[in-house]
Each structure stands twice: as C-alpha cells, then as structure tokens.
Amino acid sequence: MKELPKEIKETIDNSKTEIVTSPPELVPYDISFTPYPSEEVASDPDTLRAYNEQANERTPKWLDLWFVYKKPTRNKLGGSITLNHDVDDVTYGDAFLRTNIMKRSKGMMEGFNYLPNKGIWNIYGKGESQATIESILTRDLRAWGVYENNTVNRVRLYILRMMFDRSLGNKSPFDTARPELVAFKNGTYNILTDELQPHNPNNYLLTYHNYNINPDINECPATDHLMKKMFGDASITLKEYIGYMFYHSYSKFNKAVFLHGTGGNGKSTFINHVLKNVIGDDNNSAIPPIKWEVSKTDLIQRNCLEKK
User: Fold this and answer.
1) What is the DSSP string of the chain?
2) Does 156 share its domain with 55?
C-alpha cells in the first residue's frame, strides 16, 4: 500500500494546535493519504478549520482540500469525516503559464513556447501545443492524486485562450527578431555592441549554440595559425564569413563561399567541424548543387506537395 511521504506525515499532525509554516517548495503527494483528523478535532468547527488550513499549507494555491464532519445519527455511534478537494482552473492555469511560457498569435495559432535555459523559442507543430499542455497537466494532477479528465480539459482550454497574444498581430514575431542577437549557453550575444546579456523572451530567437562565449577574449592564436596554414591570405575572409553565419539575415551580405582544392587536404574535415561544433547540428542544412537550378515555381510546387 502506498505510504504518505515522511515529510507530509511530520507536518500534518493530528493535533488541533500545531500550525507549521509552508516550505519554499511543495512536495507533491497523493492527497488521499492526508491523515484524517480525530473526531475530537473534527467535531469542533474552529479546530477543524485550523486543521484544514494546516493541511492546505502543503498544497499549491490552485488545489484546495478540506475535511467535512457529519454528526452521528441515531443508527451510528460516531460521526463521519470525509475529505473533499477542488481545483481552481484560473489559478492553476495562471500558475502553469508562469512556469511554462507559451504564446499564440493570429499568424501562428499552433503556438510556441519559450525555453529559458536556452533563451530561444520552440515553434509547435500541428496539435503539439495541446498535447504538451495535456501531458503536463495530467502528470501534475496525478502527482497530487486529483487527476480527472474533465479537469484537464477545463484547464487546457483556459491555457490555450490565455496563450493568445493579440499584440503580436497577424505576423510572426520571429520575422522581426533582431538579427544581431545570438543565443549561447551563458547568455545572448549582441554582434553590433560586442556585449553579452541575459536571455530574454522578448528577443524571439529560434537558434541556440550549446557552448559558452567570452567577448573579452579576442585572440585565438591556435585557430589563426591553423586557418592561415590551410587557407593562406583567404583565412581572414573565411573567418569573417563564419562569423556572418551567426547573423540572422542575408540582406547585408548575400554571398556564398566555395572551398576548392585537391582531395585529402582537410576541406571536408574543416566544414564538418564548423557546422557541427561552431554553428551546431540544429542550425545548418545542406542542398546538393544539382538542385540549385530549380525554378521558383518548382520550389513552390514541391513545398506544397511536402506540406500535403
């Protein structure tokens, strides 16, 4: 049989006088295992109220539980004590959105969520936002022993409605994101000011680089030596081009670079290193040269077929 966690047993006491303070973080537990008050405590409205308040110090604000006492009848010697609970949809939904930053706009009804540890947003696919919300709610409610399908549906609908941000208008907020901002592990780097700043959801960035940077370090002698040896005078241009890969726009430098030379001199090794370890696997793609001559009409038709 499932046991009530030790810390819950210690804080929810049968006593009618002991009141404990709420801890910094709540420990989820099945509330059906909350110790029932004695009949002496339950039969007194004041002590029962104090007991219920004490029990609620171990539950989140959106979950209210209380014991109800019914006086004994002619056929029963003792009274009955029942445990009741209620989930506040609005309070729960608001708490959910504070922990899980999610938005929808007229141009992106499926929605997108912010990843604070990376400083970027994730765009949901078809039905993904609803499935994500339902999964989190289900696990959360089960942990507290109050899962009900109707509760999940009610809170999910509230969250989806509150996610909608009218201020974003018809366009995607990612289309107007500042191209000079780049998200790294230890913050967001501004290419124009050479400054590292904290991650900010209002930047609406989509790409992330899983390593730390230090703008104060401008000298890389080992890298300079290697690139000079491999590319000669062209190493300066190539380094500038690699840096431009972090800029989220093609408008200022609409150019391409080709590495040409005999085999076995490190071109593929260099490119793979840059794409995998510098730019990142999630931030690059490859198109065979044979497909470069496809007309705009063919690209549109192909894109439509892929969406179908």
Assistant:
1) -PPPPHHHHHHS-S-SS---PPPSS-----GGGSPPPPHHHHTSHHHHHHHHHHHHTTS-TTEEEEEEEE---TT-SS-EEEEEEEE-HHHHHHHHHHHS-EEEETTEEEEEEEETTTTEEEE--TTHHHHHHHHHHHHHHHHTT---HHHHHHHHHHHHHHHB-GGGTTS-GGGGS-TTEEEETTEEEETTTTEEE---GGG----EESS---TT----HHHHHHHHHHHTTHHHHHHHHHHHTTSS-STT----------TTSSHHHHHHHIIIIIIIGGG-----GGGTT--HHHHHHHHHHHH-
2) no
In a domain, 234, yes or no: no
- What are the tens digits of pLDDT across the range 72-117? 877 667 789 999 999 999 999 999 999 999 999 998 999 999 999 9
Residue 183 lies in a domain: yes
Predicted confidence (pLDDT) per residue in 238-266, tens digit: 898 888 899 988 777 777 888 888 888 88
**Taking the model in full, what pTM does it have?**
0.77
